[in-house]
C-alpha cells in the first residue's frame, strides 16, 4: 500500500534523552513536514523540507532537529533541549511544489511521545 | 498576521440533521483552503479543498464547503449528519506562494443518535 508510515506509534522518553521519530513515504512526494499537536492548540509546524538535503524551520523548531538524506525519509529528533515534548507528532507530505500548485498535503497516522 | 479561526470548540447535532462547522481566515493573497478530519489517535484525513473556481466545493463522505471571499469564510457543511461523522475537524489555509499550512484549533463534532 502507498502511504506515509510513522513509527513508533507510542514512545516514552526519559528526561535528558534524545529520541527519533521515523517518517517514511512511498508516494514519491517531494516535500515533507513535521507537525506537533497539543490539545486545544491545533497543529503547529516544526520543520519542513522541500527537497533532499534541504529543510527549513517552522514555527516551533527549538529543541528539534531533522534530516532529509533520502526523498522518502524525514526523521525527527526530539532533543533534551525540548522542555515539553509530550505531544502527538504528525508527519505529512505533498507532491510537487506545494506553494503554487494547490496540491493536497497528506498525513501519516501520528506518533505519541510521552516523557516519563 | 495570517491566521485561521474555528470559533466553536464543539458542535452538537442530532443524527439526520444538517451540520455546519465554521471557519474564517485572515491571509495575504489568494488563499488555498482545506478541511481535514481526525478520528481518535489517528492522523488527519483530507476531506476537501478550495483552490479556485466554483465557491461550493464537494468532498469526501458527503461533506461540502462554501468559500465566501467577502466574509473570509470557508464553512464545512453536510445535509444529513451521521453518528460516524463524530470526530475532530480542522480547517487549514495555505497562503499562495508559501509551503506552510496554517491550522485552526479544531472543532469537535458530536452527532447524537
Shape of chain B: globular
Give the helices and strands of chain B as they follow along the chain.
Answer: EEEEEEEEEEEE
| Most extensive chain-chain interface | A-B, 28 and 26 residues
Q: If helices are DSSP runs of H or I spanning 4 or more residues, what is the number of helices of chain A?
A: 1
Question: What's the overall average pLDDT of chain B, rounded?
Answer: 93
How far the N terminus sits from the C terminus of chain A, by CA atoms, comes to 34 Å
Uncertain runs of chain B:
none
Low-confidence stretches of chain A: none
Alpha carbon gap, first and last residue of chain B = 41 Å
Task: Determine the oligomeric state from the structure.
Answer: heterodimer
Assign the structural class of chain B, choosing from mainly alpha, mainly beta, alpha/beta, alpha+beta, or little secondary structure.
mainly beta
SSE topology string of chain A: EEEEEEEEEHEE
Give the class of chain A from helix and strand content and strand pairing.
Answer: mainly beta
Radius of gyration of chain B: 13 Å
Taking Cα atoms only, what radius of gyration of chain A do you get, to the nearest Å? 13 Å
The count of DSSP E runs of length 2 or more, i.e. the number of strands of chain B, is 12
Number of helices of chain B: 0
Task: Give an overview of the whole structure.
The complex is a heterodimer of chains A (116) and B (113). By secondary structure, chain A is mainly beta. Chain A has one helix and eleven strands. In chain A, the strands form two sheets. In chain A, strands 2, 4, 5, 6, 9, 10 and 11 form a seven-stranded mixed β-sheet that branches. A four-stranded antiparallel β-sheet of chain A has the order 1-3-8-7, with no helix packed on it. In chain A, strand 5 (43-51) and strand 6 (54-57) form a beta hairpin. In chain B, the strands form three sheets. In chain B, strands 2, 5, 6, 10, 11 and 12 form a six-stranded mixed β-sheet that branches. A four-stranded antiparallel β-sheet of chain B has the order 3-9-8-7, with no helix packed on it. In chain B, strands 1-4 form a two-stranded antiparallel ribbon. The N and C termini of chain B lie far apart (41 Å). In chain B, strand 7 and strand 8 (64-68) form a beta hairpin. Chain B has 113 residues and is an all-beta fold. The radius of gyration of chain B is 13 Å and the shape is globular. Chain B contains no helices and twelve strands. Chains A and B meet through strand 4, strand 5, helix 1 and strand 10 of A and strand 5, strand 6 and strand 10 of B.
Amino acid at each position: 500500500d502507498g502511504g506515509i508510515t510513522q513509527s513508533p506509534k507510542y514512545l516514552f522518553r526519559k528526561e535528558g534523552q534524545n529520541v527519533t521519530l521515523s517518517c517514511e513515504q512511498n508516494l514519491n512526494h517531494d516535500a515533507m513536514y513535521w507537525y506537533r499537536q497539543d490539545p486545544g492548540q491545533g497543529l503547529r509546524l516544526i520543520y519542513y523540507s522541500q527537497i533532499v538535503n534541504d529543510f527549513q524551520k517552522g514555527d516551533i523548531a527549538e529543541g528539534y532537529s531533522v534530516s532529509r538524506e533520502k526523498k522518502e525519509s524525514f526523521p525527527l529528533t526530539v532533543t533534551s533541549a525540548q522542555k515539553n515534548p509530550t505531544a502527538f507528532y504528525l508527519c505529512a507530505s505533498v507532491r510537487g511544489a506545494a506553494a503554487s500548485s494547490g496540491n493536497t498535503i497528506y498525513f501519516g497516522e501520528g506518533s505519541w511521545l510521552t516523557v516519563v | 498576521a495570517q491566521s485561521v479561526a474555528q470559533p466553536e470548540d464543539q458542535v452538537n447535532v442530532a443524527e439526520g440533521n444538517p451540520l455546519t462547522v465554521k471557519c474564517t481566515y485572515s491571509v495575504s493573497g489568494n488563499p488555498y483552503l482545506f478541511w481535514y478530519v481526525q478520528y481518535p489517535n489517528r492522523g488527519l484525513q483530507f476531506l476537501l479543498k478550495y483552490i479556485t473556481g466554483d465557491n461550493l466545493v464537494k468532498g469526501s463522505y458527503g461533506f461540502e464547503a462554501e468559500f465566501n471571499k467577502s466574509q473570509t469564510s470557508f464553512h464545512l457543511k453536510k445535509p444529513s449528519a451521521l453518528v460516524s461523522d463524530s470526530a475532530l475537524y480542522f480547517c487549514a489555509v495555505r497562503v499562495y506562494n508559501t509551503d506552510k499550512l496554517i491550522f485552526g484549533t479544531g472543532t469537535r463534532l458530536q452527532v447524537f443518535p
